[in-house]
C-alpha cells in the first residue's frame, strides 16, 4: 500500500476538498453550491455533527452533476457540539457509528449516480485519531466494514493513516494551506496564536507552493516538505467559496492539474 | 405487479415477521436473540424511533447467521415518542428520511453477508400511510431511491400498497393474529376495546386459520378473507418469543411452511 | 379575567415581540442583539425546536440588561423540523414538555435578574392550538403547573386563549403586521398567495394602524378590527432588525407608547 | 463551610440515595416506585442522559408524596451513551447545561410541592469531576447560577467538592457499599477485577459498618475511614429495590437513623 501523496509523476496534481452539507433542518452553514463549483472532493456531513437526509440528498445530487467526488465526513454523534468535542467512546461503538454514517450517505450518493469514494473524519474525531490508536483503529474498522477499498483522507503521519495501512486500506494525504505548520511537519495547535492563517494572499501562495514544490514554510521559518494529494479548503465562512476559487485559479495558472484522487 | 399474498399454490406458505432491535443505547426492549430463532423476517429499527448502530450491527449479524431476512423498519424521527406519534412532515423530507434509514441499515446487513430485503414502516408512520396518499407516495419514493426492487410489507388495501403498485414496487401483505378485524377486513382501531387479542390460545388458533384457510373471524362474528404472505408477531413483551414459538409450532403442525417472502 | 388587549385607555400602548435565541450549537439564525435593542418582549427558544443552554443564558442576560421581558417560546420537541411540523402528541406528554421548557428557561432568566414573564407557543404548536382544544388545554396545563399567573401570548379567538380563560390564566392578544388577515379577522393561511406581506412600507403602515386605530385591512379589502396588546415582528431574516426598528420608530412617531405587557 | 459528613453527633445518621427516573420515552430502566419506598434521596435524571418530562413529573410527584428529597442528577448531553462517555466540553457550556437541567427538574419538583434539594453529577461527568478541576468548577458554577445554597453530593476529596468549598456551596459526602475501596479511601476503578461487590450479604454488612463505624475494609485488607452522610444504592438492576430494602432494614436494626441530608 503506497500513500498516494508520495508519488512523483513530474506532473503536479492536486485535489481540493471542503466540508459541505453542514446545515441541519432550518439552519444553514456552508455555501454548498458555490463550493461545489470549485472543489473536486466534497466531504459531506452524514447527520451526526450536521447534515440531514434532505441536505445529504441535495449535496450528493449537486456533487454528482459536477463530477465532484463524494466523501463521508464521519463524526462523533454530537449535533449540539457540531462534532467538535472529543467523546471517550468505546471503540466498537465508534466503529459502528462510522459504518452507519457511510451507509446513510452512500445510498444518496448512489441514487445520484455516484458513490461514497472516500472517508474523512470530522472535527474532534479528526484530531483525536491523529494520536489515539484505539479510536483510529475503530474508525478504520468501521470504514472497512462498509468497504475495505475506501480511501481514508487524513493527516500524514497520523494514527489514522497508520491504522489504515496496517489494515490494508488506501490512504490519501491532505494539507492545509491556511494552517501553520511546525518544523516537524505537523499542524500548530489551534490554541496557539497564528495557528490559522487569515491573509488570503498568503494562503493562495502557500497552496501553490504546497502543490508545486511540495513544501510549506513552518511557523519557525524553515521550509518543510509536505506531500499532499489533496488540499483542504474551508467552507464555513462567508468568503470561503471566493478564496477557494482564487486558490484553484492560482493552482491552474501554476500548471497544477486540479483533479480528484478517488 | 402481483401481490405476493394473492397467489394460491395449494401449499400453504407463510412468513413470520417481528419488530426487532428496538433498544437504544443503555435501553433494551425486544428479546432479539430469542425472536430471531423463530421468525423468518426481522423488521430492524434504523435509529429514528429506536435502534443504534451497535444494535443494528448485532441484529443484522444474528439474522444473517440464521437466514432470517432483514427488513428496514423505517420510522418518523422521534426517539422520544418511539415513532408512535404522527408527524406532519413535508413529503420530500419524509422520502429522504426513509432513504437514509434504508442506507444506514443496508451497510450492516451487507457487512453480515445479507442485505435489506424489504421495507416496513413503523408505528405512527405505518398507520398514517394506510390512508395518507401523500405520505404513502413519499415512503415509496424514499424506498425506490434506495432500490426500486425492494418489496414493501404492509396492510392489504393500504395507500402504501397502492402507491407501491403505482410506482412498480413489489408489495407483500401481512396480517396480525393478535388484532381484531372489522367485517371489511381492516383492523379495529387500538382505541376500541378488544382491538388487541391477549388470549394466547386464540392468537395461535387465528394464526393457523389465517395461514391455512386465509380467513379471520371479525369482531362482529363473520369470517373475513385474509390474504397474507406474512404474519406479524409482536416482539416487545416479555413473553413475545414464547408466543411466537407456539405460533410457529402450530403452523408447522398444520402443514404450513414457514418461509421468508424475500 | 379580561383580555389585556381589550382595554381601551385612550393612550395607545403596544408591545413588540420577536422570536429570539433560535440558533443551536454551531448554527445561528436570529440577530439577537440587534433585535433586543428594539423589541419589548423576547420569545426565547427553550431547546426543543432551537436554542441551547448557552444561547438561552446569553439571550436572557441581554434581555434583562435592556429590560426586555423574557417569554418562553415553547415548542414540540423537533430540532430537525424546527418545530414546524405538527406532532400528534398525547396531551399529558405535551403538557409535561411545556412545563419542562418553562423551567429550563426560567432558571436562566432568574440568574439574569429577571424571570419568565409569559409563554408563547412556537411554529406548528402555535398553529395547532388555534383550533385543537385538547392540545390547547395541554399547553395551558403545562404552563399553569409552572406558574398559574403566567400570561399566554397568542391569537385572539384561539383555542389556546379559550383554554387559558377557562383555567384562569391571563391572556395577551397579538397581531402580525406582515400577515394577511381574512374578513373574519383570522390569519390567511401561509399556503395562500399573499399570506405574508413583504413590502416593508406596507408592514410599517399596517403596524401603526393596528396600534392606533386597532384596525387592519383584510385581504378582501374591508377594514377589520384588531385588538392586540402586542405586535409580532419576525426575527429570522437578515433585515428583521432593521424592519423592527422602522416599525418602532413609526409607532413612536404616531404617539404610540411601546411598552411590554408583562 | 463544613462537610456535613464530618459531623459526629453520637447518633448515627445516614441518607440513602439512588439514581431514578432513568427511562426515556418507551424505555424503562429503574424501578422508581419500589426504590422511592426505600431511599431518602432521589437522584432524578433530567433529560440529558435519561429521563423525559413525563418521567420527571411522575418521579417528582412520587418522591414528594413520600418525603423523599429530589436531587438533580445532571449529566453530559448524551442519550445514546447514557451519559457514560466523557465529553471534552468547554467549561462554560458545561455550566450552562448543568443550570438548564436543574431548572427543568425544579419546575416539576415545585409543582409536586417540593424542590430540587441537591445536585449530583451522573456517570462520566461524576467520574470526570473527581479529578478535572475545570469541569468541576464549571459544574459548581452551573449549580450556583441556579441556587448557591444547593448542596453538592459527591465523592470525598473530589475536585468537585473542592470547587464547591472554594465557591461557598455546601458539600455532602457519599459512600458506595458495593464498590471496592483502595487503602487511600478512593474507589477501585471499575476496570479492576472485584471493583464492584456483588455479594449482597457483604454489601449489607459494609453498609452498616460504614454508617456505624465510619469504616470500610479496603480491597487490600486494611480498614479505611469513610465519612459519608449518604450511601448510594444502585437502582438499575432488577433486584436493586430488594437490596436497598435489606440495607435500610439492617441500618435501622443497627440503630442508624435513615434520614435525608437536605
From TrEMBL, chains A, B, C, D:
One family from Pfam that matches here is LamB_YcsF
Task: List keywords of the entry alphabetically.
Answer: ATP-binding, Hydrolase, Nucleotide-binding
Give the highest taxon in the source lineage.
Bacteria
The entry's family comment says: Belongs to the LamB/PxpA family.
The record's GO molecular-function terms, alphabetically, read:
5-oxoprolinase (ATP-hydrolyzing) activity; ATP binding
Tell me what gene encodes this: pxpA
The name under which this protein is listed is: 5-oxoprolinase subunit A
GO biological process entries: carbohydrate metabolic process
The EC number(s) this enzyme carries? 3.5.2.9
Amino acid at each position: 500500500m503506497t500513500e498516494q501523496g508520495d508519488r512523483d509523476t513530474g506532473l503536479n496534481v492536486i485535489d481540493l476538498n471542503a466540508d459541505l452539507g453542514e446545515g441541519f433542518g432550518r439552519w444553514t452553514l456552508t455555501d454548498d453550491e458555490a463550493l461545489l463549483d470549485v472543489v473536486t472532493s466534497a466531504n459531506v456531513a452524514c447527520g451526526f455533527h450536521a447534515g440531514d437526509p434532505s441536505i445529504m440528498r441535495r449535496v450528493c445530487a449537486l456533487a454528482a452533476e459536477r463530477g465532484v467526488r463524494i466523501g463521508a465526513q464521519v463524526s462523533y454523534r454530537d449535533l449540539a457540539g457540531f462534532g467538535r468535542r472529543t467523546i471517550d467512546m468505546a471503540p466498537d461503538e465508534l466503529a459502528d457509528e462510522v459504518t452507519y454514517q457511510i451507509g446513510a450517505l452512500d445510498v444518496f450518493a448512489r441514487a445520484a449516480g455516484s458513490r461514497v469514494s472516500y472517508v474523512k473524519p470530522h472535527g474532534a474525531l479528526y484530531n483525536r485519531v491523529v494520536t489515539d490508536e484505539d479510536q483510529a483503529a475503530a474508525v478504520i474498522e468501521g470504514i472497512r466494514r462498509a468497504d475495505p477499498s475506501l480511501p481514508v483522507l487524513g493527516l500524514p503521519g497520523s494514527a489514522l493513516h497508520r491504522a489504515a495501512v496496517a489494515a490494508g486500506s488506501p490512504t490519501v494525504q491532505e494539507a492545509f494551506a491556511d494552517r501553520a505548520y511546525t518544523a516537524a511537519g505537523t499542524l500548530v495547535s489551534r490554541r496557539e496564536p497564528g495557528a490559522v492563517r487569515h491573509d488570503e494572499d498568503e494562503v493562495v501562495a502557500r497552496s501553490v507552493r504546497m502543490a508545486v514544490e511540495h513544501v510549506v514554510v513552518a511557523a519557525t521559518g524553515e521550509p518543510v516538505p509536505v506531500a499532499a494529494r489533496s488540499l483542504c479548503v474551508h467552507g464555513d465562512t462567508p468568503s470561503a467559496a471566493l478564496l477557494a476559487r482564487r486558490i484553484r485559479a492560482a493552482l491552474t495558472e501554476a500548471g497544477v492539474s486540479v483533479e480528484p484522487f478517488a
